[in-house]
Automatic annotation (TrEMBL):
Residues reported in the UniProt entry to bind Mg(2+): D102
Annotated InterPro entries: MobA-like_NTP_Trfase, Molybde_CF_guanTrfase, Nucleotide-diphossugar_trans
EC number annotated for this UniProt entry: 2.7.7.77
Entry text on domains: The N-terminal domain determines nucleotide recognition and specific binding, while the C-terminal domain determines the specific binding to the target protein.
HAMAP family the record matches: MobA
Residues that bind GTP: L13, S14, G15, K26, N54, D72, D102
Protein localization: Cytoplasm
Protein's name in the database: Molybdenum cofactor guanylyltransferase
Family from the record: Belongs to the MobA family.
This protein's encoding gene: mobA
Domain MobA-like NTP transferase stretches: 10-164
Known partners and oligomeric status: Monomer.
Keyword Nucleotidyltransferase listed: yes
GO molecular function: molybdenum cofactor guanylyltransferase activity
Native species: Aquincola tertiaricarbonis
Length: 202
């Protein structure tokens, strides 16, 4: 069963500490002439009914772009799942599609392709193939999730859980192959200043 984009809120995850980038607010770093998180939000907007941004610093800067800003519930910086929880709790739709701010080349049809495979799933997660090794690589921070998972995720985080894929696999999780031309590099994350500079040229 395919779900309509009107049933999906898109969330850009920009709430981390970006330690490998020197602790700067990664979502505000320039990429191709605009901040990373702004680029991600604009790329996501045509794919969903509404867009929001998860951020924990410089909230006024993010809010100036015109989308809602949903911080984590506390100041633990508990990783991307804490941002996902903020989205699951705040979205007015039954589904949430999340993308990280540091994945500037995610597919422009990401949500549509994930939505084709919902069925009875609670989570639909892209899986790519490493071009060097041929190994499958789940891409959990680009997932489509039912917002009804909010209470379960809150309990998981309270118990100290942090790994996205581990939590997702506790539910009805579809691992969807993304094997079209270009998919192998579409989910690249920029985690260092050197990677930011290199991928900005592609």
């Amino acid at each position: 069963m395919k779900i309509d984009r009107r049933a999906v809120t898109g969330l850009v995850l920009s709430g981390g500490l970006a330690r490998r980038m020197g602790g700067v607010d990664k979502g505000l770093q320039p990429f191709g002439g605009q901040p990373l998180a702004l680029r991600a939000a604009q790329r996501l907007q045509p794919q969903v009914a509404a867009v929001a941004i998860n951020a924990n610093r410089h909230l006024d800067a993010y809010a100036a772009w015109g989308w809602p800003v949903w911080p984590d519930a506390d100041d633990r910086f508990a990783g991307p799942l804490a941002g996902v929880l903020a989205g699951l709790r705040s979205a007015a739709t039954p589904w949430l599609a999340c993308v990280p701010c540091d994945g500037p080349h995610f597919p422009p049809d990401l949500v549509a392709r994930l939505a084709e495979e919902t069925g009875e799933a609670d989570v639909v997660m892209p899986v790519t193939l490493d071009p060097a090794t041929g190994q499958a690589q789940p891409q959990p921070v680009f997932s489509l999730l039912r917002c009804a998972l909010r209470d379960d995720l809150a309990a998981w985080l309270d118990d100290g859980g942090r790994k996205f894929e581990t939590w997702a696999r506790r539910h009805r999780c579809v691992m969807l192959p993304f094997d079209q031309p270009g998919d192998a590099t579409a989910f690249v994350n920029v985690n260092t200043p050197e990677e930011l500079a290199r991928w900005a040229q592609t």
